[in-house]
Design brief:
Pfam families: DUF4919. By secondary structure, this protein is an alpha+beta fold. It has ten helices and four strands. Strand 3 and strand 4 form a beta hairpin.
Length: 225
């Protein structure tokens, strides 16, 4: 299946941080406390309802508590596999973009999101399908949800050094952020100090050799499961 992604809104999101926001590492202990407190404005279930409604009024702190707070939920399993993902891959390899195929893509991708709720790539597939079906309102909702995920991750660093790592809760998000920023994976992945993932990138105009991602939550989840 051939599709083109409209990523202009993503680049606008990225540009906004360089001008208006300061990077801030997530305080996991505080986030865990807040998302479990039903009286907190950052209670996870309440934030998830806002996200599912594609609420454009969500603050940056709410977005951060939603994304990182998910890693403290029982269903969080960063290395889980999904049978639905294999089915989705088959659909994406299909050259047809007829209504039946697009509707099937939406059905299967919804199942994938149950295992990977914050996959930016899956949200992009759904954006494409909804736009092709003429369902602009639904496409915009997917776009807004994707931007919520991206806003949370990009608020944590610029990825140029371990100290300025992007904080992620799945390795899938690493490659998605790489693509969104306009880089191509260079083929080298390295785990540093059991805390950082380093991904090399191909030659680029920024002369960056690679980007760093803090994957602390992935390892901490193994200790609690």
């Amino acid at each position: 299946m051939k599709y083109s992604l409209s990523l202009l809104f993503l680049f606008l999101t990225i540009g906004s941080y360089s001008q208006t926001e300061e990077f801030s590492k997530p305080d996991y202990k505080l986030i865990e406390k807040n998302v479990e407190d039903k009286k907190s404005p950052y209670y996870f279930d309440a934030l998830l309802k806002k996200y599912n409604k594609a609420d454009s009024t969500m603050t940056l702190e709410e977005k951060r508590h939603l994304y990182y707070g998910y890693s403290f939920q029982k269903q969080y399993s960063p290395y889980a596999t999904s049978d639905a993902f294999d089915n989705l891959t088959e659909i994406l390899q299909n050259q047809n973009t007829d209504k039946k195929t697009l509707e099937k893509l939406l059905k299967i991708s919804a199942k994938v999101l149950k295992d990977y709720p914050f996959s930016i790539r899956i949200k992009e597939y759904r954006m494409f399908a909804f736009k092709e079906l003429g369902k602009i309102k639904e496409a915009k909702a997917e776009e807004l949800q994707a931007s919520i995920i991206i806003d949370a991750i990009l608020s944590t660093g610029d990825g140029t050094t371990p100290e300025k790592s992007f904080y992620v809760i799945t390795t899938t998000n690493e490659y998605e952020i790489l693509d969104i920023l306009g880089f191509r994976f260079g083929g080298e992945q390295e785990l540093i100090e059991n805390k950082y993932d380093y991904l090399s990138v191909v030659e680029n105009s920024y002369n960056l050799e690679g980007l760093y991602f803090d994957i602390t939550r992935l390892f901490e989840s193994f200790k609690t499961n």
